[in-house]
């Protein structure tokens, strides 16, 4: 996690001060209420809105599920990967937060311009390597002394994991990620300027009995062209617009099989309630429409077509001759 937390000793000291009266909780509340000015650190400028951070979280929650499936198959052991946090911090702060010797997978994702980074905790990385080479998957930090063969195997393992990255991002932007560099010392890695804002997605990773973190570093300058696409409004619109061909075909087939009531109206007339009650067999009602006038054809109670009466094989029928447009057509 990137946020600062109190140590257990600091928590104990704070509780002790409150219980002995050295600090007054009410006074602390008053001091907090009196603060009108909020300190703003321009080095930690928030370049992504909460909405956009939520979209990034959803994308990488999907990526975590895909990685879980991928590594479970590759390593043939229990693997669990989930998003722990999504933070936007200066690049310099991210570099300080990761181990001095670690696994750094530098990659590009065309058409985006610039480089992205996947940092894998040494304990997790070696557990993966140990498992691939036939071991039990025990974690061990020997990253500073990786052989050329071990480096090649590990590089290939994470290169294949980039396919899942492209799949996870496909809902927002089609990208084609490709590995460009493999490094173990963060001090030799300068992707962007130290004060550049980056989004860091931290994954809690468990492989067998070994646990650790995987961090993905996405610079703001790289994501800038597609930032508008990260809004929920844009995402939901795209979801509604895009349907898979098989979904469209299935939907069309169901709609086409729906039964609709079709009514051809010969005409109307107004009668009193008394006349209605006295109606009997063979009575004749005079309609307000001439025989020569076309008929109104309604679908589900709504006027849709114009038709003319007739017969087909001694069956009464109505032929559709036009689309209904103006009601005046039936009052000529």
From TrEMBL:
Domain of life, per lineage: Bacteria
InterPro entries: CheC-like_sf, Flag_FliM, FliN-like_C, SpoA-like_sf
Subcellular location: Bacterial flagellum basal body; Cell membrane
Entries under Pfam families matching the protein: FliM, FliMN_C
The keyword Cell membrane is annotated on this UniProt entry: yes
Keywords recorded for this protein, A-Z: Bacterial flagellum, Cell membrane, Cell projection, Chemotaxis, Cilium, Flagellar rotation, Flagellum, Membrane
Parts of the chain that traverse the membrane: none
Mode of membrane association: Peripheral membrane protein
UniProt family annotation: Belongs to the FliM family.
Annotated protein name in UniProt: Flagellar motor switch protein FliM
Species of the source: Pseudalkalibacillus berkeleyi
């Amino acid at each position: 996690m990137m946020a600062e937390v109190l140590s257990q000793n600091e928590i104990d000291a704070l509780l002790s001060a409150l219980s002995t009266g050295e600090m007054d909780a009410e006074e602390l509340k008053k001091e907090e209420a009196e603060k009108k000015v909020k300190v703003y650190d321009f080095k930690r400028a928030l370049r992504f809105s909460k909405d956009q951070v939520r979209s990034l979280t959803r994308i990488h929650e999907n990526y975590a599920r895909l990685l879980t499936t991928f590594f479970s198959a590759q390593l043939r052991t229990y693997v669990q990967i989930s998003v722990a946090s999504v933070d936007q911090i200066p690049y310099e702060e991210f570099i300080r937060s990761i181990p001095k010797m670690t696994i750094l997978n530098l990659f590009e994702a065309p058409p985006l311009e610039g480089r992205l980074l996947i940092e894998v905790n040494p304990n997790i990385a070696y557990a993966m390597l140990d498992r691939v080479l036939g071991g039990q998957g025990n974690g061990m930090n020997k990253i500073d002394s990786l052989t050329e063969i071990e480096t090649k195997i590990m590089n290939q393992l994470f290169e294949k994991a980039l396919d899942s990255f492209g799949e996870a991002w496909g809902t927002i932007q089609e990208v084609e990620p490709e590995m460009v560099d493999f490094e173990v010392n963060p001090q030799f890695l300068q992707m962007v300027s130290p004060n550049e804002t980056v989004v860091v997605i931290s994954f809690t990773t468990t492989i067998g009995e070994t646990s650790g973190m995987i961090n993905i570093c996405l610079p703001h300058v790289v994501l800038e062209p597609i930032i508008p696409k990260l809004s929920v409004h844009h995402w939901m619109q795209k979801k509604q617009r895009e349907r898979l061909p098989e979904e469209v075909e299935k939907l069309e087939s169901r709609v086409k099989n729906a039964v609709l009531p079709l009514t051809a109206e010969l005409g109307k007339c107004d009668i009193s309630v008394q006349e209605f009650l006295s109606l009997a067999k063979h009575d004749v009602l005079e309609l307000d429409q001439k025989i020569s006038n076309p008929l109104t054809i309604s679908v589900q109670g709504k006027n849709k077509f114009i038709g003319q009466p007739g017969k087909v094989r001694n069956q009464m029928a109505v032929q559709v001759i036009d689309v209904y447009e103006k009601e005046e057509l039936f009052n000529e």
